[in-house]
Amino acid sequence: MIGFIGKDPVSTTFDSGKNKTTFSLATSERRGESSVTSWHNVVCWNGLARVATDFLKKGSHVAITGRISYRNYDKDGVKHYATEILADRMQMLDRTSKDEGSPEATVEETAAPTDDIPF
């Protein structure tokens, strides 16, 4: 999905050392002469989370690839439901000046290596 960041990403580092960054993403779909905006909650982990924290900000134009996740949780006795996009790939689409230092590259979260290493 391609869209714009709704507010600055929020980063969390857990005791285990894992990093998580969340942000909202607005996507638009044209329907005739009008446009419909949808909001999505995006979650990035570890390396992708660090890149999102360092380079994304409110208004950033970005392409996200990932999978949809549905979860529920209980807060103060009330059951809540959450739908999130678990990002595994991100491409920053902003045109930036060389002075800003923001990479115009694709970043992908790679899976952990398996134990099939021959040495």
Fraction in beta strands: over 45%
Structural domains: how many: 1
The Rg value, from CA coordinates, equals 17 Å
CATH C-level name: Mainly Beta
CATH architecture: Beta Barrel
Q: How many strand segments?
A: 7
Instruction: State the fourth-level CATH superfamily.
Output: Nucleic acid-binding proteins
The best one-word shape is: globular
Mean pLDDT: 86
What's the N-to-C terminus distance?
Answer: 40 Å
Global structural class: mainly beta
Give me the strand/helix succession: EEEEHEEE
In brief:
By secondary structure, the chain is mainly β.
Structure description:
By secondary structure, this protein is mainly beta. The chain has one domain (2-97): Beta Barrel (OB fold (Dihydrolipoamide Acetyltransferase, E2P)), CATH 2.40.50. Helix content is 8%, strand content 55%. It has one helix at residues 46-55, and strands at residues 2-5, 10-13, 19-31, 34-45, 61-75, 78-92, 106-108. Strand 2 (10-13) and strand 3 (19-31) form a beta hairpin. The radius of gyration is 17 Å and the shape is globular.
What is the topological layout?
Elements: E1 2-5, E2 10-13, E3 19-31, E4 34-45, H1 46-55, E5 61-75, E6 78-92, E7 106-108
Parallel strand pairs: 4-6
Antiparallel strand pairs: 1-3, 1-5, 2-3, 3-4, 5-6, 6-7
